Each structure stands twice: as C-alpha cells, then as structure tokens.
Amino acid sequence: MGVFRNILGVSCCTLLSRISGLLRDILIFSALGTGELNSAFLVAFTLPNLFRRLLGEGALNSALIPIFSDEYHMNGKEQAFVLLNKVLLRLVCVLIGIIFIGLIFLLYGMVCDQTPKRWRICFMLSAVLLPYMFFICLTAVFSAVLNVFGKFLLAAGNPILLNICMILAVTISIPWGENACVYSLCLGVLVGGVLQMLLLWRGLNQYGWRFRFDRSSGERVNDFQRLFFPGVIGAATVQVNVAISRLLAYFVSDSAVSVLYLANRLTELPIGVLVIAVMTVIFPRLSNFEARGEKVLLRMEFERGIFVLSVIILPSMVGLWSLDRTILDLLFHWGQFGAQDMDLVLPVLRIFILSLPFYALSTHFIRGYHSKKNTIKPMIFSFINCTANIILTICLMFYWKAIGIALANLLSVILQTLLLYEGLWQHYEEFRIPIFTVKFFKALISSLLMGVIVATLDRTLILYFSGKIHGIISLCINIPLGIITYFGLLYLLLERKHLNELKPFVKRLIRKFKKN
Length: 516
Known about the structure:
mainly alpha, 86% helix, globular
C-alpha cells in the first residue's frame, strides 16, 4: 500500500473518529454547558489524557518505532516481539506505580477539610478516571507496532470505540440530571479504554505476538531507554504545559476551561484528521530510510511531508476562520450552551485557528529529529515552549482571561516552531529545506481566494435564512464549493512537477473506490 493510500485510509478512519468525538462533545456541552461540572470533568480528564498524549502520541512511539523497526528488519519478527515484551513489562510496572501514587494524592485532596467544594468534585472525578491511563497507554504501544508492520487503519479507527461508549453514557444518563451524567461519562471512558486495548491486543495477536514476562535487558532495550527518557521529558513539558494552562484557567472562572477545551477541539479536527494521519504514515518511512542509510529518499520524504502539510493545513485554517460562527452555532448552540457561551468561545477559537500551521510544522519537525534518534533537541525546545507559555499565561490571563491564555499558547508554539526549524537546518544537511517556497505561497493564495468566496457566500445566505437552517444550507454549499475552488485554483497555479507529487494520491483514491 502506497504512502498516499495509507494517508487516505488513516485520514478516513481518523475523520470518523473526530466526527464521533465531535458528536460526543456536542452532547456533553448540551447536557452540561460550560459550567462547573463540565469544567471539573475536563480538568479531571486532563491527567489520563496527559499520559495518552505523552505515551500514545509522543515519546513512546518516537522511541519505540525506530528501535522496533531496526530489530524487525535486522533480526526478524520473533526477536522484535521479544523486545516488545521487555518494553511492555517495564511500561506496566511504571503505570501501576503512577496510578497508585496518583490515587493517594487524590484521595487525600478529597478528604481534606480545607479543599474547596469545586476542587473536591474535580479530585473525585480524577480518581475515577485515573485507571484509564493504563489501558490507553498499552493501546499506544500496540498501535506503534502495528504501524511498523504497515497496518494503520485498525489503530486509527480505534478511538471510535471510546467515543461511542461516551456518547451512550451521556445519552442514557441525561434524564437523571447533570450529576448522574458526569459520573456516567466517567464510566463510559473506562469501558471505552478497555475495549480499545482489547481490540488492538487481538490485532497484534494475529501477527503471532504473545505476551511473555521478560525482565532481561539488552542492547535494544538500552537504546530504547536512551531515546525514551529524554523524549518523555520533552513531551512531558508540552503536556504539563497543557495541564498547567487548564488548571490556571480553572482559577480564572468556571467557564474558562470549557471555553478553551471547545475552541481547541474544533481546531483539532484538521490537526487530528490530516496532520496526525500524515505523520502516522510518513514517520515510519523516515525511520526506515534513516535505518537503511538512504539519505536522498529521507530528504525527499521529509520535503514531501512539508508540501502535503502546506496543501492541507492552509485551506483548513482559512475555511475554518471563514465559517467559524456558522459552525459553532450549528453544532453547539443547543440545550445548556447558549448565545453567551458562543460569544465567549469565538475569539478564543480564532486565536487557536491561527496556531494551526505552527502545530503542524512543529509536529513534522519533531518527527525529523526522532527519525535521527535525537530526542534531546526537541526536549530542550519543548521545555522552552513550556516555560514561555506559563510566563505568558500568567501575564495575560488576569486581563484577557481565556483569550489571554489562548494568545500565550499561540506565541509559545510560534517560538517552538522557529527553534525546531533552526536546529534542523544547522545540524542535518538532508533537512535543509525551505518552507516558504513558491508552491507554499501558491497554496496560500489559493486558500485565501477560497476563503473570500466562502465567507462572501455565507454572509449572503444569512440574509435569506436564519438559525440552524442557515447553518445547514451554508455548510452543505460552502464546504464542497470551498474544496472545488481551492483544488481548482491549486491546479491552475502549481507547476506540473508539483502536481505530480499529488497525482499518486488521486489515482489510488480512484482505484480504491472502483475496487470497493
């Protein structure tokens, strides 16, 4: 299966996952609004999600994929599975220890007389959700291994199970009120985590893997630990950054956490569907080319990653900005989520939209370092990002509240992206690739023209329709019109050699539909 077909498959699965996640969030905000219980749940969900991001989408995969890939290609599948069992046993021990220590602190916070009521609720929900990190971190390991084998779809579609469980939990519990809803939601998270782990466990079993207790060490395990621990520190600074921002927002107001979460979730759609899909497919290829010493192919793959990201993230950013109010009104203006909540979310959402290209590029740059088995530099830059974000957040949040926190996130990720790019340019000749090329500006011009057309049509439609009817008609017309307009302009502006980089993607898409 070619790289573009893999990207297409992962994108489709991730799209279904994000759509189900969006439906989940719509139900949650409709049932709980942006009030105290919703904010408490989101803060409680931060801790297991921190480890999901840390291990599932960060340091563990970045350390495991190159080492496992080397072992698999050099010594075969059996020895690679021996390495996997050694890593799994160590991970299980670490996770059990973290959960045990975390529960002690959370239970103490719950029974302490000086703990305010709103924090007591938050600690209680955190204690319920903490075991979820065990299941989701094991799921992350299985996903990484399946990706090395070139099997991306099972792992990419796996989060749909979690979303379904949470949707069912909210739907069933709505008639019993907000308290019942939030605890039912926690139960849905735990059930979804178990199902996610079991599904990928079974998928890996089909390749002949069986879990064995193996406490022995070895050169490969030492290599993994050498890459993993600096990577953990680097990824931890980013995720601690998120956690601190969310906790600081919890001090600002009851609604700040919910507002930031919702704005972030809407911008995660292009990041999650497109950027993560591209990285999921391209990163193992970068690692394989580096392992085989194919420097020319490594450079070409890295450059193609920048080009593909530019082609997909720029129109996503412009389109989301052009239709932000319409999307927000159509999807979330229900139940407890009212017009006042929309006015709180909209400016924060626009700031997060501006950060999309920088998150996309920084993710790709970090994968470039990791393909070289360099986790030290990203760790340093992540620490700088975290420090800058905390300082900026404290300076801006008291005056601008949630908007100030969003601005701090934007400025810090711009700084991190620039540092990562400069480091790649200085230390790796094959990664000395300019970003702002002619084809980048052509993609930007196509995106801006598309945005003008879409925004004008949306403003025109609001003269004839209102409310949900306007939103449905506008999105049904503007989304396909925007896609056709953008790619039509891109086709006219790009040179043939650049279009040829995208042609395999289109051809594989057509063949797949014909085959199905």
